[in-house]
Write a structure and sequence with these properties.
Layout (H helix, E strand, L loop, with lengths): L15 H4 L3 H30 L1
């Protein structure tokens, strides 16, 4: 098992719509996505609390 070699593939394709965004648009999109994540995370926490109560 020590013989196995692992390779990290860090190639990504950035869509043209993201490449063409200004820094302000990128910052706004990041904030929007972060707020979406927080909403989903909070809903999961509340659901878990209800299930364990």
């Amino acid at each position: 098992m020590a013989d196995k070699k692992y390779f990290i593939d860090d190639r990504i394709i950035i869509p043209d719509e993201i490449k063409n965004m200004t820094n302000e648009e990128i910052d706004a999109e990041i904030k929007r996505l972060e707020s979406e994540i927080m909403i989903v995370k909070n809903e999961k926490i509340k659901r878990t609390q209800r299930e364990t109560a």
